[in-house]
Specification:
The protein has one domain. Helix content is 72%, strand content 1%. Strands 1-2 form a two-stranded antiparallel ribbon. Strand 1 and strand 2 form a beta hairpin. The protein starts with a helix and ends in a 12-residue tail after the last helix. This is DUF112 domain-containing protein. It holds the Pfam family TctA. It comes from Microvirga lotononidis.
């Protein structure tokens, strides 16, 4: 009953006129930018994050939540009409969604994606409402060594999963990105001794490198430069919408079960470290194909292939918010950027925030219910408006993002050093994308690095310098062993994988 009372207080916060306006602005901006090809939720939040500095925290995070959900919705439009997934989670939607568009059923594909996103987003938000307080109760029982081990586990799982998702990536690249982020997190004054670290005599670096600057540099600047270099000269083949958005009785019959199944798959997987949106969408697509009475239609325009993955994609967004709010641990790239947004306001998500700033947390959760309704109203009747954004010239789009990102970062502190850092990090992000180095471990290393250092020093202070404190606590040792397994298993599997034999000429 306490959860319902807190949620009611959250609705009282979210339903104020000011916050309703910010929710509408958030879902509108999120959908509009999410529609544009190549720009996912993480990049959208990173671009707009510096522009919210003057807002109250509750209003800012209600807008961020709207941007997050709106960008998830908008990505389906690009996948269906352009066959260009804006993010990895929309890849499966593109398989059958674009096939439906080629057959003149793009309107129905957008409709099932929008309604499925609403259904799954609502179910996921209900899961968040009840899962977050349970995670808080668990978190309150953890000690400093447990927190240290939990954050190490989070870094290990995200780094290995993103570096080696299918066995073909390089774990070394992921670890390099992680340690680069950890290095960035050490810049500034030592929290215990007050000594300057890696500041190189630059006064602006004594407070450390702003996580917002790094997030915008990697996700907005680096990603935009990469898109301009790879896709800037290509002409997109847009399939125009024809006919009514109204789904037939058969479409409804074939969609509602995938909506529910996708939601039940997406939420729990989105909540685990490195679960993200890719894994649940692939699982949903595979499940729907196995359960379908017409599996031969998959890849040719099966509506279940759009309904299930889109539902899983949006439910995973709510799942990712559960550990972010309750434990302060991001499990996806967008959650990592939102964690940077919390730090922008001097807030640290976790169990204490539920006590010290309950209106913010529950107002944010309540706004997700409201934002889902706004998104359904925006996406169905205004789909034609969003489609017109796809005709925006790419040079204008990429140039606008770079200018907006630079102005936003400069507005944070009003100094040119942030701009230099932004563009240096942006160029590093561009090189990382070209080489194939994952970006998220770098951001997580920057954000969680100082927290890991804090918990490490606290643990050693409690144990009077005894390092065995991390293996004498049962929870801590379990987390560390799992983290070790995540790092070692890809290396071992890579060594066991047979090497391709090169053709060698045999002379007789």
């Amino acid at each position: 009953m306490e959860t319902f009372a807190l949620l009611a207080q959250g609705f009282a916060v979210a339903l104020t006129p000011d916050n309703l306006i910010w929710s509408i602005i958030g879902v509108t901006l999120g959908t509009a930018i999410g529609v544009l090809p190549g720009i996912g939720p993480a990049t959208t939040v990173a671009i707009l994050m510096p522009l919210t500095v003057g807002l109250p925290p509750v209003s800012a995070f209600i807008m961020f939540a709207g941007i997050y959900y709106g960008a998830q919705y908008g990505g389906s439009t690009t996948s269906i009409l352009l066959n260009t997934p804006g993010e990895a989670g929309a890849m499966m939607t593109a398989l059958d969604g674009n096939a439906m568009a080629r057959r003149g059923r793009g309107a129905q594909a957008l409709a099932t994606a929008a309604i499925g996103s609403f259904v799954a987003g609502t179910i996921g938000t209900i899961g968040l409402t009840f899962a977050a307080p349970l995670l808080v109760e668990i978190a309150l029982k953890l000690t400093a060594p447990d927190y240290f081990a939990l954050m190490v586990l989070s870094l290990a799982t995200v780094t290995t999963m993103l570096s080696n998702p299918t066995g073909g990536g390089s774990i070394a690249f992921g670890l390099a990105a992680l340690f680069f982020g950890l290095l960035l997190g050490t810049v500034g004054l030592d929290p215990q001794t007050g000594q300057a670290r890696f500041a190189f005599g630059v006064p602006e670096l004594l407070d450390g490198i702003d996580t917002v600057v790094v997030a915008v540099g990697l996700f907005a600047i680096g990603e935009t430069l990469y898109l301009a270099a790879t896709d800037g000269g290509k002409v997109d083949s847009l399939h125009k919408l024809r006919g009514s958005f109204w789904m037939s009785r058969e479409d409804w019959s074939r969609s509602w079960r995938p909506w529910l199944r996708g939601a039940l798959i997406g939420f729990p997987i989105g909540a685990i470290p490195a679960g993200g949106s890719e894994i649940p969408t692939v699982l949903s697509y595979t499940l729907e194909r196995k359960l379908s009475k017409k599996p031969e239609e998959f890849g040719m325009g099966a509506i279940e292939g759009v309904a299930g993955p889109e539902a899983a994609n949006n439910a995973s967004a709510a799942g990712a918010l559960s550990p972010l709010l309750a434990l302060g641990l991001p499990t996806s790239s967008t959650a990592a950027v939102m964690l940077a947004a919390f730090q922008q306001y001097g807030l640290r998500p976790g169990p204490m925030l539920f006590d010290t700033n309950a209106s913010l947390i529950w107002g944010l959760i309540a706004s997700l219910y409201i934002g889902n309704v706004f998104l359904l109203v925006l996406n169905l009747p205004m789909a034609g408006v969003w489609v017109r954004l796809l005709s925006l010239p790419k040079p204008w789009l990429y140039g606008g993002i770079l200018v907006l990102s630079s102005l936003g970062v400069y507005s944070l502190n009003g100094n040119a050093v942030d701009l230099v850092i932004l563009w240096v990090i942006g160029m590093v992000g561009f090189v990382m994308r070209v080489v194939g180095v994952p970006i998220v471990p770098c951001v997580l290393g920057l954000i969680l690095g100082p927290l890991i250092e804090q918990q490490l020093r606290r643990s050693l202070a409690i144990s009077q310098g005894d390092w065995t404190v991390f293996v004498t606590h049962p929870v801590s040792v379990v987390f560390l062993l799992i983290a070790l397994a995540f790092v070692v298993s890809p290396i071992v599997s890579g060594l066991r994988r047979p090497k391709p034999q090169s053709a060698v000429g045999i002379t007789q």
